[in-house]
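worker-3 :: picked RING-type E3 ubiquitin transferase
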Amino acid sequence: MAPSKSSIKNLTALDSAAFDCGVCECPLKPPIFQCEVGHMVCSECKEKMAAAKTCHVCRRTLAGGYKRCYGAEHIVECLKVPCPNKANGCSAKIARYAQSAHLQVCQYRPYQCPAEGCTFADRHLSALKNHLKNTHKWPSTKVYDGTSNLALVDGFNVIIPCPGSRPQPTDIWRSFGPSVYHMLILKVTRESYGRVVTPVHIRARDAKECRLKLAYETPCGTHRLEYAFNVPSTDVSASGGGGLSSPDDRFDFVVPKSVQPLDMDTIKVAFSCWYL
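worker-3 :: tokens ->
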């Protein structure tokens, strides 16, 4: 009688490097190749070392090059590890080599605070919004469908887009609850020629891309300048790169000092956004 199949629980790998490529040190994934002694390499490194005549570890002659190792492929496919976001509720168990790809789409990965040096993280975007407001004192403003007039201070300004038209004050919490699905951060930097507004869209996991329109008017109201542009998105998670977007990904909106002088505490801009 054939023995029944069983799963091995509470397995501990004393040396996880045993499942890494001997050249690039990345987790091994099929197809896997080895020398005649058993030193393993991934397919990419095998191709890069096609001209090599000896093993990268033992220096034995490779007669015909590295050979396919089907046994190791079966092992790495069978060994599953829990998602690093298990504490946040993710129950997925994935092959070790697929962990990085899973983290890119995991619905339970936490949002990290984009403030430099801050280690706060939470899986709810609304918690991040409260953290930015209460801990870092970044001013927070709710905006609704249509155009909103904003007074932006130097530094970081948090904008919370809310669906629909502006409700009555007693209806706000009941209508929208504590959930936040989108957040924009407008960073205002004071330069010699005026103020520069740099927007970043912080999205929920399945949120759409954001398009933003900013505008300003001359004090007498005779001239108006507005720009509409796509805003770079981030989920400020470790797997998403953490932090805000790089300068190369950003569009800066400039309010010249001839329109709103530098000695003003705030700048006034018209704001509207929608999702693509």
